[in-house]
Amino acid sequence: MLRQCESMADFEVEEILRTLPAKAEIFGTVIAGLIVATLVFAVMLPILDVSSLI
Question: Which residues in the chain land under pLDDT 50?
Answer without folding.
Answer: none
